[in-house]
Amino acid sequence: MRICILGATGLVGRESIDLVARAWPAAELSLFASRDQTLEHGGKSWDVRGAASLEQADAPRGDLALVALDDDHSARYVPRLLELGYRVVDKSNTYRGDPNVPLVTAAVNSHRVDAEVRLVANPNCTTIPFALAMAPLLRRFGLEAATVSTYQAVSGAGIGPLDEFLADAKRGYAEADRLGRPFDAGKYAGNTVPHNGKTDDGGFSAEERKLMFESRKILEHQALAISAQCCRVAVAVGHYMNAWFTLRDAASVAEIEALLGDAASAPFVRFLPGAAGEGLSARSCVDHRDRALAGRVRADARDASGRSHCITIAGDNLRLGAATNAVRIASRWYASADPELQSPT
Ligand SMILES: NC(=O)c1ccc[n+]([C@@H]2O[C@H](COP(=O)([O-])OP(=O)(O)OC[C@H]3O[C@@H](n4cnc5c(N)ncnc54)[C@H](OP(=O)(O)O)[C@@H]3O)[C@@H](O)[C@H]2O)c1
After folding, report:
1. pLDDT tens digits, residue range 291-331?
2. Are 107 and 344 spatial neighbours (Cβ–Cβ below 8 Å)?
3. Of the residues 73, 239, 285, 309, which is catalytic?
4. Which CATH class is domain 127-153+191-317?
5. Domain limits of the chain?
6. Which atom of ligand 1 lies at the shortest distance from residue 12's CA?
7. Level-2 CATH architecture, domain 2-122+322-341
């Protein structure tokens, strides 16, 4: 099996290298980024080629491409990879809205990936944990509405902003100012800021629109009433969110907890019982990188019908929210040696 990773030097690309070794240890792996270079990763030196070489007539053909590039570069290289015979999982936003391209969260709508499909879009890093927690509820009780408020890690913006954040945080916290004034009011370190890219006429950011649009597409539930507000918090990795949801049928907190705690009903969810939320934090995500953490289920007192509840969900944005889900998607075409990375049928 011949696999290539585009964007191999980035945050998601590096995670993909590690996961390919777990899922398909015998695969022949080639790496691409902006230019020819050597990548030091996992105690090894990797040869990385400039992605433009894929446009040459003698570019290598292959079986599977995992693409972790920005939207414009995905639009440039994905058609070429398909032409070269690769099956492609693209992690950018480029193809998510295309009605002809399946948008897949493994174990939620994996059935969309069959032998005929050549290109699959990997969802946004908040949508994946949200969909994993909501899908069992939708199946068992019906889901009418959800309101989501996210607290997203800086690594979601890529390796450049993450490294700048780490340097700014080191400088800012070096000064013992009890009001946090050494931090720049417009930057990520020591701060919480709106996720404000590509705001539309209604005032919603691209991230908020993605969470709403993608949830409906993945859950195959266009009637879902959903609203989202997103912000970035001063955390390196781990997207955290609070959600309020209304079911079609009344369900008790105990019934919801039992459902989300059952691995067969809620694959890839690590349910943490108890309203206090012990073990449920952004930092905990990097100890359980391939699972959505869910807990703090509480009845929403505004709704006496017993259909509305609150929940907290978190997930490692680089792994569960990107690289892991992409490998699980591809496991529908090529079985994974590691069962944790195999998507159920
Ligand atoms: N970070 C997340 O949490 C997350 C989660 C879900 C989805 N995603 C999506 O995954 C994709 C990658 O995100 P990331 O966070 O890994 O980004 P990143 O850390 O900024 O990495 C970007 C990658 O793109 C490569 N690149 C830049 N310019 C290029 C060019 N002209 N030609 C070919 N390659 C080029 C870079 O290579 P060089 O090192 O050579 O510059 C690097 O490998 C994005 O679409 C993002 O939206 C990210």
Report:
1. 999 999 999 999 999 999 999 999 999 999 999 999 999 99
2. yes
3. 239
4. alpha beta
5. 2-122+322-341, 127-153+191-317
6. 16
7. 3-Layer(aba) Sandwich (3.40)
